[in-house]
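Record 1 of the preview.
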Amino acid sequence: MTVGGPVMADEVGDIIASLGVRKVEARSRLVLPALWNEAGGQLAYWPVDHSQAMIDYQLAYFSDGGRRAEDASVILLHDNRPAGLWPLMVITEADGSRRICSNGGPVLPPLFSRQLAPKSVKSLTRACVETLVSMWQSFGQHERVCIDCFTATFGLGDWHEQLMLRSARVGVQHQLLADLQRPLAEIRTGFRKSFRPLISQGLKLWDACVISVADEQQWEEFHRLHIAVAGRVTRSDESWHRQLAAVTAGDAFLVVLRDTKSVMVGAALFHVTRDEGLYAVGAYDRSLFDKPLGHVAQFLAVEEMTRRGLRWYRLGSRAYPADQPLPSAKEISISDFKQGFSSHLVPRFKFESTLD
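->
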């Protein structure tokens, strides 16, 4: 199987030059991928959104339907050493319009080495915000949206402050997380009470396992199941190849559920870093929705994450009826299900800037 690689945006040179004007050295992730991982290893907390596997997947996902997605992610240096990560992407739409983003969505903050002095973090963050503004201006980009990310720290950081100083409007989203820094039995006790017997039932009902080594045959089964459940092809083959590559690299794992005839009735993929797990995609036989499928997949994922020593499991967004844009009933139902496995509801701030 041939898997194409991501393409570097021409603008990455402009980003590096703009940072250089502000006395910040930077290097392209695509040119120096090992340096990205070296910098990631120095973070106090390494989110999945700042992982190379997730960036590569999102590049493949958004390079579809007439769009082109190019990598502009940079490694930030301090005293000639890798000190920070900033995941960036340039998307060119079918109509030729361009925008800078992170993983196809709002711009994520740069994250820095835990060894970096607070004063240096502040100056580097300011340089990144100024560079982002200059890129927005050069693109003529009207949609200027940023978000923060969960880093398991208390309080608001320099990214938040720098954007607010530039008169950004801020809104609050909600994220569901599970604290994995406890014994598995204690984590399971914290699940929604009605879920616990369903997990026990499902473990007896299904032949369930965690696949942490790439298995192309089972991966193709999962792909076919996803198409059958969705009723259509929802994304490119390249995006599926990228997720399989993440399993191969140890940056993701697959939970598979089979019936007594060894037919795959459910499967779910989870991305991981040293510190965090993320629920990425799942598919379950619609004719068995009255059976505990997702419950078992979530439990086995939590079990695998605790075995790997991860600190937090990020299940995704918690949708509420008054959110904007208004969520569908299905989105609210799915997030309610996820909340049954979470231990924490945390804010995620969304910033919209209209000023230069």
